[in-house]
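I'd like us to work through together how a protein chain folds, taking it slowly. To get us started, please write out a protein record for me. Label the sequence line and the structure token line clearly, so we can match residues to local backbone shapes. Once you have written the record down, we can walk along the chain together.
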Amino acid sequence: MGLFKKKTVTKAYDKENKKPVIKASICNGEQVAGFKNIHTGKIEEVMLIKNQADLDAFKKMYGIDGEIEKEY
């Protein structure tokens, strides 16, 4: 029926120590969105990005505005 909308819950991340990045593979073009620790350089993978809708969902989930840096 679709009477009720699904609530979107904004998740939080450590904005002082982590920044959002997209890790892209040079070989097959696979992209994974996640957060990079600015002190250690370690990337915490969150979700696979298959298309623009997935990227928009990731941005909306964490309240991210603007472009996300890609790393290869």
About this structure: Residues 18-71 form one domain. The chain has one domain: 18-71.
